[in-house]
Amino acid sequence: MKLLIGGYTKKKATGIYELPLYNSDKGLKVELGTAKEIIKIGGPTYFVQDQDLIFTINNAGDKGGISSFQLVDGAYQEKDSYLTAGSSPAYIGIDSVKHLLYTANYHTGALAVFSYTAEGQLTLIDSVTHTADTLGPRPEQVDGPHPHFFDETPAQNLVSCDLGNDCVDFYRLQNNKLEHLAKYQNEAGFGTRHIVFSPDGNYFYVVGELSSKVNVVQFNEKDWTFNNIATYSTIPDDYTDHNGAAAIKISHDGKFIYVSNRGHDSITVFAVKEDHTLELKQRVSTFGEFPRDFNWDPSEQFVVATNQNTDNATLYKRSAKDGCLTPIQKDIYVPEGTRVLFSE
């Protein structure tokens, strides 16, 4: 098992790094090894993998977009790029069965769908640009729409989260064209960032970056009705310093929700009750500053959070029973990390 971490390349980082995850002390202890650069590229703040292919955000100076790399004879080779003038996207999602990629560009307001081949060749299928329909009141919102997420729903429609417009938009890709289906509006100033869905596909949990909240919503993906269940803070009530909620994950069994907090520098753990309301279980430190992303291995036994500002990561053991995280390795050096992905 390996860990891949990418992020900004403004200071020390130069691309995507690989860290081995191995057993020591006769298998009684799991540790992460030393980070080694495997792909040299500008600003791989988000990336996805399909077997021997890696698709990553590429900040190429005055151009931005995505690039593909393929593992050939033990080394990653660049296969293709799709770059345009201006800023790079903030998010890239993947459907490895359909060979589709989904990108959200925070700065330009654009959502895009790409196809890819087994050799990593990229083709733009369609794109749409959000308009300033419901801009929120916060300084980060008044300059326009800011989609921060674009990926598939349980029924394989598409969903985007727009921080500027405080909303979740649903689309369908039909005849290679994106068709808007529905919109769910969060409260003003929520800062809609990322979203996860319950295993049964009847609920979603959307995190607000600017509000540091999680909104639980019941929805029907056939008639597009929405029922706002409840909203929960990811930070303590008495915490008054700046915080930006970032990544949100849901366990495969649907019993636990996890959110990273940049500012409070923690991961908040919620238990999902039978009525899909949430119960706070834990707020655990990330032992660094500005944890934009975290992720777990396929078994969900281990979690790694990376701290962008302090160039370090933390490895946790996860309890499947109560969802709580126990740190088992701290101060793992990784420069400017913003994306965490376990790899076989």
Automatic annotation (TrEMBL):
GO terms for cellular component: cytosol. InterPro entries: Cycloisomerase_2, Haem_d1_sf, Lactonase_7-beta_prop, WD40/YVTN_repeat-like_dom_sf. It holds the Pfam family Lactonase. Transmembrane segments: none annotated. Coiled coil: none annotated. One of its GO terms (molecular function) is 6-phosphogluconolactonase activity. Gene3D superfamilies: YVTN repeat-like/Quinoprotein amine dehydrogenase (2.130.10.10). It comes from the Bacteria. PANTHER family: 6-PHOSPHOGLUCONOLACTONASE, 6-PHOSPHOGLUCONOLACTONASE-RELATED. Belongs to the cycloisomerase 2 family. This is Carboxy-cis,cis-muconate cyclase.
